[in-house]
Amino acid sequence: PPSPTNPSTVWSALLQALQNLALRTGKTTRTDAPPNGRITQHKLPRKKKQKKKRAAHHLSQHMDSESVVSQVQRKIELQSPEDLAYLITNVRNAAVEHLNEAFPPVEGAEEDELRIQIELLVNEYINKTFSLAAPNLIINGLPVSPDVLRGSASTPDTVYEPFDTRKRRQVADLITQEEKLLEDVAALKRSVPAKVAADHAERVRAAMRQDDDDLHDRVARDAAAAQREAGSLGVAQLQRQEGVEAGFKSAVQGLNRLKRDMPAVVAKMERARVAGEYVVTKGR
């Protein structure tokens, strides 16, 4: 330790101790020895403490910004209540499948109380899960209604789009195009059937003429072939040709008369039969 009788040594030790204390506390102390021998201390600017304050301020601002971001965090968007109902239904169906795997239903057996209790707990858990998730969901920009979670989705209000002149012009153009197409279809209905019918009739007439020509050619060829065959066979005329023809002609005429008179004869026979039955019946 320094000697108390040496003032310079005491002064140096005190100055060193003050500097060490200033370094530990973030303060800078300047000690001067005035002419009167009294010690005067002057506090210098606290640079390190100011840096710490600025760092703490920036940290608090960053935390505040994070809290704001967490408050305005984007929610899960759905287009219609049917989407949420679809999700809930899928979750319930998956739960039922797992229950069926764990507790297979047995036909003809009594209801399993354990399965019923587990199913109630699972449904309660699903309802609670979606109820807690409802604040983080929006349906078409609106919060989730409790009716949707209960399964009775209400009909959403009709949302009208602002009037758009461009779309109105597009609608007018489409209407004009539709009318033009209808006029074209009407013109085709008037002109096409007649033209198609005329073309078809012309094709039919051409085919009939071709068939007639083919038939005449075939008949002519067959007649020529028959004449050639008759000439080659040398068939002579019969001795009683006229008598045979006359007998055949009379037979044909008799058949025609019989065919003509047969209904009258049958009618007479029918009347005679009825009259005979009447006479026989009355005679008895």
| Discrete helix count | 7
Helical percentage: over 70%
Instruction: Kindly provide the radius of gyration, computed on alpha-carbon positions and rounded to a whole number of angstroms.
Output: 61 Å
Strand order in the sheet with the most strands: 3-4-5
Report on the biggest sheet: 3 strands, mixed
Mean pLDDT, nearest integer? 75
Q: Low-confidence runs (pLDDT<50, min 5 residues)?
A: 1-7, 26-44, 66-70, 152-156
**Shape type:** elongated
Overall structural domain count: 3
From the N-terminal CA to the C-terminal CA, the straight-line distance is 183 Å
Helix-strand string: HEEHEHHEEHHH
Question: What is the number of beta strands?
Answer: 5
Structure class:
mainly alpha
Strand content: 5-15%
InterPro entries: Mis14/Nsl1 (IPR013950)
Biased composition (Basic residues): 40-60
GO biological process, one term: mitotic sister chromatid segregation
GO cellular component, one term: MIS12/MIND type complex
Account of the 3D structure:
One of its GO terms (biological process) is mitotic sister chromatid segregation. It comes from Trichoderma harzianum. InterPro entries: Mis14/Nsl1. Residues 40-60 have a biased composition (Basic residues). Pfam families: Mis14. It is a single chain. The protein has 284 residues and is mainly alpha-helical. It has 3 domains: 7-70, no CATH class; 75-149, no CATH class; 164-231. Helix content is 71%, strand content 6%. The chain has 7 helices and 5 strands; from the N terminus they run αββαβααββααα. Strands 3-4-5 form a 3-stranded mixed beta sheet, covered by helices on one side. A hairpin with a 2-residue loop joins β4 and β5 (142-143). α3 runs antiparallel to α4. It is elongated and about 175 Å long. The chain starts with 6 loop residues before the first helix and ends with a helix.
